[in-house]
Specification:
heterodimer, A: mainly alpha, 7 helices, 0% strand, elongated, B: 107 residues, alpha+beta, 3 strands
Chain lengths: 202, 107
């Protein structure tokens, strides 16, 4: 063995160790579905009144519920295809890392709605989401880290711009953000399947 | 050159085999893995993985635990303390070989 082989071995070891702790079941389709829903939710306020707490709450609850459903469905299909358990160790780790941010977002949503200040929520949600995404970054594909950083930044911008920009910032942060995430995951999924095909042919 | 050769000669042959190194690398990253998770991760057949696990178990590097989850048997594998120690030592040796090589080329 020479130093180049040793360096290659170290690289293989690192890749294997990273792959073991990463959660691989996030699907591109779920990201694209979440992006589409958030974009549609944002566009809905061209017709609806964002200042109305009921309309605002129902639309974004629908977007969140739909995105969650798409994620769970995509994950379930992926785990079935690979023959692995849905509620696996990496899945538990990711959910545990996400839980504090989700709880904070929920508690703050209740508070802001009760104050009648719901138009500040997009910035708050984006900050919570960004924090949650970064908390899972160690176990998730790399694009999640970028999404977390971008959403944190956009959350701060949304708070600085104020309530008038609420719907637009949601479309930008969650809509466009998830669209970019979905596209990046799609590229990495295609690469992974090309690699699998290459291995099976070789 | 002699130093690199000495380091290479000193490498743990149990870990130096590609398949076993992959198994130990995955187990070193987590507390434990099921047989299925390990098999899918290292992309081996059941038989091949069993053979390697048996060798690692015989050496005391890996411990396996068989239990039933519902009605299905499940084997869980984990790296033992001696296994972890041997893995860290192996990594140190690889790094030393890389350093020696860089020293020679002046990189």
């Amino acid at each position: 063995m020479d130093s180049r082989q040793a360096a290659r071995n170290l690289e293989v070891i690192r890749t294997l160790m990273e792959r073991t702790v990463q959660y691989q079941f996030l699907t591109a389709r779920a990201g694209l579905a979440a992006g589409t829903l958030a974009g549609a939710g944002s566009l809905a306020f061209l017709v609806l009144d964002a200042a109305n707490p009921w309309q605002f709450g129902i639309i974004w609850a629908f977007v969140f519920g739909g995105s969650l459903f798409a994620t769970v469905l995509g994950t379930a299909v992926r785990s079935q295809e690979s023959g692995e358990r849905l509620w696996s160790r990496p899945a538990r780790t990711v959910v545990t890392a996400l839980a504090p941010s989700l709880f904070a977002a929920l508690a703050l949503s209740v508070l802001f709605f009760s104050w009648g200040q719901h138009l500040w929520l997009p910035g708050v949600w984006m900050l919570c989401y960004g924090q949650g995404a970064l908390a899972t970054a160690a176990y998730a594909p790399t694009p999640i880290r970028w999404l977390g950083l971008a959403t944190l930044f956009l959350g701060a911008v949304a708070l600085a711009l104020g309530p008038a920009w609420a719907a637009l910032m949601m479309g930008l942060g969650f809509g466009l953000g998830h669209f970019v995430l979905g596209t990046l995951l799609l590229v990495s999924e295609r690469r992974a399947s090309a690699l699998r095909l290459h291995r099976s042919v070789a | 050159m002699k130093a690199v050769k000495r380091l290479c000669d000193d490498l743990d042959t149990m870990l130096h085999e590609r398949g076993r190194l992959a198994i130990v690398s995955m187990l070193a990253a987590v507390e434990s893995l099921t047989f299925t998770e390990l098999r899918d991760g290292v992309e081996m057949t059941d038989g091949n993985l069993s053979v390697h696990l048996q060798k690692l178990e015989d050496r005391g590097y890996v411990a396996t635990d068989k239990q039933f989850v519902g009605r299905r048997p499940q084997t869980t594998c984990r790296l033992t303390k001696p296994g972890h120690k041997a893995f860290v030592r192996y990594l140190d040796q690889l790094e030393a070989i890389v350093r020696q090589g860089r020293g020679r080329t002046g990189a």
